[in-house]
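Table S5 (text form). Sequence records supplied for joint modeling of the two-component complex.
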Amino acid sequence: MQINLEARELTLKIVYYGPALSGKTSNISALNRASNDDSAGRLITLETKDDRTLLYDLLPLTYKDTGNFTVRVKVFTVPGQVLHASTRKLLLQGADGLVFVADSQVRETQHNADAFLELREFLKSNGLNLSEMPLVIQFNKRDLPEIRSDSEIHQTSSHGQEPVFMSTANNGAGVVETFLGCLYLTMGAIEKTHGLKEKFGLDRVRFVEDTARRLGMARPLAQIFDECVSGAFNTLTPGDLER
Amino acid sequence: MSVSGNVVAQARSRIGTTLGEKWRLDRLIGVGGMASVYAATHRNKRIAAVKLLHQELSVVQSTRTRFLREGYVANSVDHPGAIAVDDDEVTSDGLAYLVMELLDGESLAQRQDRKGGKLPVSEVIWVADRVLDVLSTAHKQEILHRDIKPENLFLTKGGMIPSVLLGGLVFPEGPRMLKVLDFGVARIRDLADQTGGTESGSLLGTPAFMPPEQARARSAEIDERTDLWAVGATMFHLLTGRHVHIAETANEVLGLAMYKSAPRIRDIDDSVPFALARIIDRALAYERADRWPSAESMREAISEVHVSGALASNALITTPPPSYRGVISSLPAAPPRSAPPPPNESMQPMGSQRPQAPPAPAPPTATLPTGGQLTPTMRASAPPPQFRSYAAVALILLGTTAAGWFARGAIDAPHSASTSIQAAEPEPAATPARPSARPPIEH
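The corresponding structure-token record, covering 686 residues in total, follows.
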């Protein structure tokens, strides 16, 4: 996170992490498509010849709060293939929020777990503690056969605090909700440490709702977060989401 | 010759001392033929494993160079499953050491012992998938491991992971990560080609997990398929509880490895699923050309077993689900065998059912380079109870390489013909928790 007080500008870094081919790039592409105004910058992708992410995808999003405070969100994806482990580790540096994109297919369960353990290890080696990071889990590819069932995910996610969203990133379903969930948690963590509301008048609920509108979601945040299967958002009281 | 009492005593005497004013050696984890491993604390409070080359080996320039090179090779693999060396140094009094992550968990050999000698199919498939993933990455970088065996495969505790990501899979004790240890005998082919780093005729590896070309010290023939044979031998051992070749002495094991084809795994244990047996049998082919051509191809084959239904619904539970049995039973039966394997192979002329081994050549010109006096205690047999209580963690980080034990002259560990480690003292399986943040290493 970077704060430029003079320019009244905050820059956040949100990283999409997950096993190879879980749909991280599909997420960021859908997010890019959802941005219906000029808030989204150019999506930068570096792909190999077989369309796999080579280095990273980067989508810069810029929002201006009514208090004339600018928030830039840099959304990164990491390359999932094992070969690029050092790139993934590098991209995690300075991450403010994380979206873990899990593959819903039953046979990918172990790869999801492996990727999560790797994420934790890499964060540790970067001096970060995963349990202290804003994290949202997304179960992608809900349109495929032989996936883990909704009821199983509902049941198992209730044991954890991490918000869990379902998605089919190829057609955009669940993508914006996931992003907003992570953005909300990330802004909350920064609010806690830097007091954005008090110092700059930046209200995170208003900010995230405004962001939602720019991404094509004109619903109250509470309704949007109803899409969340389980986790921290389920413990939010209506008051938490009021301005 | 065993790891002598003097070496162990010397290793113990270093507990509490500080290396180069940086690393305080807190606890001796184990002593091997080449090095001792300690749990150590840096002056900046970081906790790590320190692998200290024995003093008498530290003064040998070539050994010291090879030892320190281990770190660079492992780091070059750049895979989370390859244990990386964080630091290396030679103290002012000439002691060489490596610093690496202190692991919390157990080796597959220890797990196998703890589980009564065999591991479930599902775990072995998971292990094979993981180790082949590491090897695939290493091989792409022209790095061979050359000493894959259960002692060099380490399961670390996965720790906290959201239960929603687990979904009833993985190990019953919780999530695990596999670390491939001891790239110390690995060879970067280019480097060897350029510098003659590994001379033809020198033997590196562990007899019980050596394919013919490695046992015969044919360095020029050693390639990716050498590692894949070792993966097959490891799977064979984990599933059946016995080595590919069984003999009374390590020399005999080596001889069998040189000239005898591996038995088919279902001839040893017909409970091994046929689809999996075919993969292992191919990995263990006598002729390199008959083996899997690459780690990737072998991994894909294992993955197909997984995807085809063998493990589709619940890959890593310890008891195969009904669907698994159904798939296996629907597969064609194993071809009839002409004769069951002998209960205890000996160095008889071949003529086995497997691809015919080439005619026995003249005795190898180089076998055990430096006084390879291997003792009968290396007999492949069930481990004695005391071995089961040995420390987990960095036993494997020891000088387990044959280079080490050949340099030392012998092996004493009774676990198997492949083990060169002697634990200095029994240790609890779990090591102390490490601080979550890793401060930088001071230099």
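Note: The mean pLDDT of chain A is 81.
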